[in-house]
What does this fold into?
Amino acid sequence: MEQLKFHPLDLRLEAAGALTRMAYRGDNERSGDLRTAIDYYCKKYNADRNRFSGMLEAYEHVKENLVCEEQELVTLFGCPDGLETNLYDLIRQMQYNLGSERVHELNLRIALAISDEAIEVPFERVGVADLLQYAQGLPISDPTKLLFADAIIRYEEYETRVNRVLDQAEALIREKADLLAPYAEKALADWNALPSAETFFDQLAVEGIRLDCPHADVYPIVMQFTTIYVHSNILSAQYLGKEENTIIQYGVLVDEFTRTERTGKTDLESIANLLHALDDKKRLQILVALRERPLYGQELAVVTELSPGTVSHHMGELVGSGLVKIEKQGVKLLYSLSEPRFREFTAMLEKSFLR
It folds into this structure.
C-alpha cells in the first residue's frame, strides 16, 4: 500500500489529545473528560470497562500532574466560542501547510487562514487588513475574532505557549507509554492486514469522510479513540511547489464501534437513530441547504443563523447518522448529503411500515 504509510504511536499527538479533552468545556460527553467518555461508550455499547483501563490511567496521570493555569489550557487547547478548531490545531495546520521556515512569513499564514472555496487568495499580496476584514465577517463572538486574528499575527508567541504546555504533557504521557502501546499496535496490525489502500479509504467513507489524495500518513490515536482528524496541505502545495500530502489521525476504536453501530442494530433501531438525528428544525434546515450543493461549516452558520460551534454539534449528529458526509479541504470541512444513506432510510421505512 504505497499510497499509505502507517506510523507507530506518537506520544506528542497523544499528549495533545489528552490536553484537548482536559480543555473541553462543551456538553458532548464523548469529547471531554476521558472517564466521562468511557462511561458513555460502556453504556451505549455494553463495552468492557477494563479494556479502557490503560488509556484512562495515562490520561489521569497527565490530568493530576500537569502544571498549567486553567485559562491557558482552555485558550490553547479548548475550542473558542464559534471556531471549528482550537489554537493548537490551527498552529499545527499552519506548520504542516507552510513548513518550519515559511510558516514565519505572515502573509502566507494570513493567506492560509482566509482561504475560502469562493476566493482565490493571492498568497503574496495579503496583509493584516485582509485578515481583520475576514475575521470581522465570521459569525463568531468579538473576543473569538480577536483571538483568531491574534494567533495568526503573533504565531511565534502562541507556538511557544502551546509547546510549553505540550512538552510537559508529552513527558507525562511518556511515563505511561507502555499502557498506550497495545492499543496502537492492535490498530496497526489491523490496518496492515488490509488488502489495499482502497479498503482503508472505504473505511473512512463509512465514517462520512471522503478523501482523494496521492499519499497519506496515518497515525493511531488512543486518547481520542473514536475520532478521526484529517490534515491536508492541499491549499498551499501548489503555491509552494510542494507535494500534496495528508495526515490522518485515526482513533484506535473507530472501526470497532462503527461496526457495532451499523451491524448490531435492527431496522427499527436504525430508524429510531435516524429520526433522532432529524428531530431538530435546524438540522432539517441544514439538510435542505445541502440538497442544493455541498457547503462549508461557516456557510451553514450563515444559512442557519447559528454559531459555528452549534453548527458543528448538529453536523456531528448528522454525520454520525450517516446522512451527511465530510470532505476535508485544508483547514475547512465540506459537508454534503449521503444519498445512499437516504435511500437506505426510505427502504427501511417501507420495509418496516408498509405492506
